[in-house]
Amino acid sequence: MAVPLTILIATHNVFKMREFHAMAEGYPVVFKSLTDADLNIDLDEKGSSFDENALYKARTVHALTQDMIVLADDSGLVIDALDGAPGIYSARFAGILATDHDRMEKVLHELKHETRRNAAFLCSIAVIFPSGEERLYHGEVKGTIAENLSGAAGFGYDPIFIPEGEMRTLAEFTEDEKNAVSHRGRALSAFFDDMGFIQRKGTRYGET
After folding, report:
1. Nearest Cα to 148, choosing from 183, 101, 181?
2. What is the pLDDT of residues 167-183, one digit of tens each?
3. 137-149 average pLDDT score
4. Quick check: is 67 in a domain?
5. Domain total for the chain?
6. Which of 51, 118, 183, 198 is the most buried (most CB within 10 A)?
7. Is residue 208 very low, low, confident or very high in pLDDT (cuts 50, 70, 90)?
8. Is 28 within the bounds of a domain?
9. Which of 109, 73, 51, 82 is nearest to 186 (CA)?
10. pLDDT at residue 152 greater than cutoff 50
11. What CA–CA distance (Å, rounded) separates 105 from 110?
Protein backbone atom coordinates (compact mmCIF):
# COMPACT_ATOMS: atom_id res chain seq x y z
CA MET A 1 0.00 0.00 0.00
CA ALA A 2 1.26 3.48 -0.87
CA VAL A 3 2.32 5.74 1.96
CA PRO A 4 -0.47 8.32 2.25
CA LEU A 5 0.25 11.99 1.76
CA THR A 6 -0.89 14.18 4.65
CA ILE A 7 -2.61 17.37 3.53
CA LEU A 8 -3.71 20.16 5.84
CA ILE A 9 -7.13 21.56 4.98
CA ALA A 10 -7.49 25.24 5.87
CA THR A 11 -10.78 24.94 7.71
CA HIS A 12 -12.35 24.23 11.09
CA ASN A 13 -15.68 23.33 9.44
CA VAL A 14 -16.63 19.80 10.50
CA PHE A 15 -19.21 19.42 7.71
CA LYS A 16 -16.67 20.39 5.06
CA MET A 17 -14.10 18.01 6.56
CA ARG A 18 -16.61 15.18 6.49
CA GLU A 19 -17.05 15.78 2.76
CA PHE A 20 -13.29 15.89 2.18
CA HIS A 21 -12.79 12.63 4.08
CA ALA A 22 -15.54 10.92 2.08
CA MET A 23 -14.20 12.19 -1.25
CA ALA A 24 -10.68 11.01 -0.37
CA GLU A 25 -11.72 7.42 0.29
CA GLY A 26 -9.48 5.10 -1.70
CA TYR A 27 -6.92 7.79 -2.50
CA PRO A 28 -3.45 7.84 -0.86
CA VAL A 29 -4.12 10.97 1.17
CA VAL A 30 -4.96 11.80 4.77
CA PHE A 31 -6.68 15.11 5.40
CA LYS A 32 -6.15 17.06 8.62
CA SER A 33 -8.15 20.11 9.66
CA LEU A 34 -6.84 23.22 11.39
CA THR A 35 -8.38 21.82 14.55
CA ASP A 36 -6.41 18.60 14.13
CA ALA A 37 -3.24 20.65 13.74
CA ASP A 38 -4.01 22.79 16.83
CA LEU A 39 -4.08 25.93 14.71
CA ASN A 40 -6.64 28.22 16.29
CA ILE A 41 -6.84 30.83 13.55
CA ASP A 42 -9.73 32.57 11.82
CA LEU A 43 -9.48 32.98 8.08
CA ASP A 44 -11.40 36.06 6.96
CA GLU A 45 -12.33 36.01 3.29
CA LYS A 46 -11.04 39.34 1.98
CA GLY A 47 -10.74 38.64 -1.73
CA SER A 48 -12.98 39.66 -4.62
CA SER A 49 -13.21 36.17 -6.14
CA PHE A 50 -13.28 32.52 -5.12
CA ASP A 51 -9.69 32.15 -6.36
CA GLU A 52 -8.46 35.08 -4.27
CA ASN A 53 -10.17 33.82 -1.13
CA ALA A 54 -8.85 30.27 -1.55
CA LEU A 55 -5.31 31.56 -2.14
CA TYR A 56 -5.50 33.92 0.83
CA LYS A 57 -6.50 31.10 3.17
CA ALA A 58 -3.89 28.71 1.79
CA ARG A 59 -1.11 31.32 2.00
CA THR A 60 -2.05 32.28 5.56
CA VAL A 61 -1.88 28.67 6.75
CA HIS A 62 1.23 27.88 4.68
CA ALA A 63 3.09 30.71 6.43
CA LEU A 64 2.50 28.89 9.73
CA THR A 65 3.15 25.33 8.53
CA GLN A 66 5.69 25.48 5.73
CA ASP A 67 6.57 21.78 5.97
CA MET A 68 3.08 20.61 4.96
CA ILE A 69 0.96 20.64 1.84
CA VAL A 70 -1.88 23.07 2.47
CA LEU A 71 -5.22 22.96 0.68
CA ALA A 72 -7.87 25.67 0.96
CA ASP A 73 -11.15 26.03 -0.84
CA ASP A 74 -13.67 28.77 -1.34
CA SER A 75 -17.02 28.08 -2.86
CA GLY A 76 -20.44 29.57 -3.19
CA LEU A 77 -23.78 29.75 -4.93
CA VAL A 78 -24.10 31.96 -8.01
CA ILE A 79 -27.64 32.84 -9.12
CA ASP A 80 -28.26 34.40 -12.54
CA ALA A 81 -31.36 36.37 -11.54
CA LEU A 82 -29.47 37.92 -8.61
CA ASP A 83 -26.57 39.06 -10.80
CA GLY A 84 -24.31 36.36 -9.43
CA ALA A 85 -25.25 36.77 -5.77
CA PRO A 86 -24.71 35.49 -3.18
CA GLY A 87 -21.39 34.50 -4.78
CA ILE A 88 -18.34 35.05 -2.59
CA TYR A 89 -20.70 36.29 0.13
CA SER A 90 -22.62 33.00 0.27
CA ALA A 91 -21.68 32.37 3.91
CA ARG A 92 -22.70 35.89 4.96
CA PHE A 93 -25.62 36.50 2.61
CA ALA A 94 -28.17 37.07 5.38
CA GLY A 95 -25.73 38.53 7.91
CA ILE A 96 -22.77 37.30 9.91
CA LEU A 97 -24.91 35.57 12.55
CA ALA A 98 -27.40 34.05 10.11
CA THR A 99 -27.97 30.30 9.90
CA ASP A 100 -28.05 28.17 6.76
CA HIS A 101 -31.85 28.27 7.02
CA ASP A 102 -31.82 32.08 7.19
CA ARG A 103 -29.67 32.30 4.06
CA MET A 104 -31.87 29.91 2.10
CA GLU A 105 -35.02 31.75 3.14
CA LYS A 106 -33.49 35.00 1.91
CA VAL A 107 -32.68 33.45 -1.46
CA LEU A 108 -36.20 32.06 -1.80
CA HIS A 109 -37.69 35.42 -0.82
CA GLU A 110 -35.64 37.30 -3.42
CA LEU A 111 -36.66 34.79 -6.10
CA LYS A 112 -40.31 34.70 -5.03
CA HIS A 113 -41.66 36.16 -8.28
CA GLU A 114 -38.74 35.09 -10.47
CA THR A 115 -39.13 32.44 -13.19
CA ARG A 116 -35.46 32.54 -14.16
CA ARG A 117 -33.94 30.32 -11.47
CA ASN A 118 -30.70 29.17 -13.11
CA ALA A 119 -27.79 28.87 -10.69
CA ALA A 120 -24.46 27.17 -10.18
CA PHE A 121 -22.22 26.11 -7.34
CA LEU A 122 -18.59 27.12 -7.94
CA CYS A 123 -15.50 25.97 -6.08
CA SER A 124 -11.88 27.09 -6.19
CA ILE A 125 -9.23 24.96 -4.51
CA ALA A 126 -5.79 26.40 -3.82
CA VAL A 127 -2.92 24.07 -2.98
CA ILE A 128 0.47 25.24 -1.71
CA PHE A 129 3.37 22.81 -1.46
CA PRO A 130 6.24 23.09 1.05
CA SER A 131 8.37 24.54 -1.77
CA GLY A 132 5.93 27.44 -2.07
CA GLU A 133 4.53 26.27 -5.41
CA GLU A 134 0.87 27.24 -5.79
CA ARG A 135 -1.79 25.53 -7.87
CA LEU A 136 -5.47 26.27 -8.47
CA TYR A 137 -8.26 23.85 -9.33
CA HIS A 138 -11.91 24.50 -10.16
CA GLY A 139 -15.23 22.72 -10.00
CA GLU A 140 -18.74 23.68 -11.06
CA VAL A 141 -22.18 22.13 -10.94
CA LYS A 142 -25.05 23.84 -12.76
CA GLY A 143 -28.66 23.67 -11.73
CA THR A 144 -31.71 25.60 -10.60
CA ILE A 145 -33.09 26.98 -7.35
CA ALA A 146 -36.07 25.05 -5.97
CA GLU A 147 -39.20 26.86 -4.84
CA ASN A 148 -39.05 25.28 -1.39
CA LEU A 149 -36.53 23.63 0.92
CA SER A 150 -36.34 19.88 0.49
CA GLY A 151 -34.10 17.22 2.00
CA ALA A 152 -32.19 16.86 5.24
CA ALA A 153 -28.71 15.82 4.11
CA GLY A 154 -25.74 18.00 3.21
CA PHE A 155 -25.31 21.55 4.44
CA GLY A 156 -25.30 25.14 3.23
CA TYR A 157 -27.65 25.76 0.31
CA ASP A 158 -28.05 22.06 -0.57
CA PRO A 159 -31.80 21.91 0.30
CA ILE A 160 -32.68 24.51 -2.39
CA PHE A 161 -30.28 23.52 -5.18
CA ILE A 162 -31.39 21.08 -7.88
CA PRO A 163 -28.50 19.87 -10.09
CA GLU A 164 -29.00 19.94 -13.85
CA GLY A 165 -30.91 16.89 -15.07
CA GLU A 166 -32.24 16.07 -11.59
CA MET A 167 -35.58 16.40 -9.81
CA ARG A 168 -34.03 16.23 -6.33
CA THR A 169 -32.12 18.82 -4.36
CA LEU A 170 -28.57 18.07 -3.27
CA ALA A 171 -29.93 17.59 0.25
CA GLU A 172 -31.89 14.59 -1.05
CA PHE A 173 -28.78 12.93 -2.48
CA THR A 174 -26.82 10.27 -0.67
CA GLU A 175 -23.33 11.29 0.38
CA ASP A 176 -21.76 9.30 -2.46
CA GLU A 177 -24.19 10.73 -5.02
CA LYS A 178 -23.46 14.28 -3.93
CA ASN A 179 -19.69 13.85 -3.89
CA ALA A 180 -19.79 12.46 -7.43
CA VAL A 181 -21.37 15.62 -8.86
CA SER A 182 -20.55 18.41 -6.42
CA HIS A 183 -18.46 21.46 -7.23
CA ARG A 184 -16.05 20.64 -4.40
CA GLY A 185 -15.82 17.02 -5.52
CA ARG A 186 -15.00 18.05 -9.08
CA ALA A 187 -12.32 20.51 -7.98
CA LEU A 188 -10.77 17.91 -5.68
CA SER A 189 -10.84 15.31 -8.46
CA ALA A 190 -8.93 17.75 -10.68
CA PHE A 191 -6.26 17.99 -7.95
CA PHE A 192 -6.08 14.21 -7.54
CA ASP A 193 -5.78 13.77 -11.32
CA ASP A 194 -3.03 16.38 -11.47
CA MET A 195 -1.13 14.53 -8.75
CA GLY A 196 -1.56 11.21 -10.54
CA PHE A 197 -3.39 9.63 -7.62
CA ILE A 198 -5.11 6.32 -8.30
CA GLN A 199 -8.23 5.46 -6.35
CA ARG A 200 -8.36 2.04 -4.75
CA LYS A 201 -11.98 1.59 -3.77
CA GLY A 202 -12.55 0.04 -0.38
CA THR A 203 -9.20 1.28 0.90
CA ARG A 204 -9.10 3.79 3.75
CA TYR A 205 -5.75 5.45 4.30
CA GLY A 206 -6.91 6.98 7.56
CA GLU A 207 -8.79 9.97 8.88
CA THR A 208 -9.36 11.70 12.16
Report:
1. 101
2. 999 999 998 899 889 99
3. 97
4. yes
5. 1
6. 183
7. very low
8. yes
9. 73
10. yes
11. 9
Give me the CATH number covering residue 133. 3.90.950.10
Residue 129's alpha-carbon distances to 34, 53, 69, 99, 189, in angstroms, are 16, 17, 5, 34, 18
- 104 in any annotated domain: yes
Whether residue 74 lies in the annotated active site: yes
> Given phi > 0 = left and psi -120 to 50 = alpha, else beta, which region is 40?
beta
Radius of gyration, CA atoms only, the chain: 17
Which residue range(s) make up the domain with 173? Answer: 5-195
Task: Report whether pLDDT(207) > 50.
Answer: no
- Contacts for 63 with CB less than 8 Å, ≥ 6 apart: none
Q: Considering the chain, what percentage of its residues have pLDDT values greater than 90?
A: 76
**3-class DSSP assignment, residue 94:** coil
Amino acid of residue 25: E
- Among 44, 73, 74, 158, the active-site one is 74
State the DSSP string of 19-83. Answer: HHHHHTTTSSEEEE-TTTTT---------SSHHHHHHHHHHHHHTT-TTSEEEEEEEEEEEGGGT
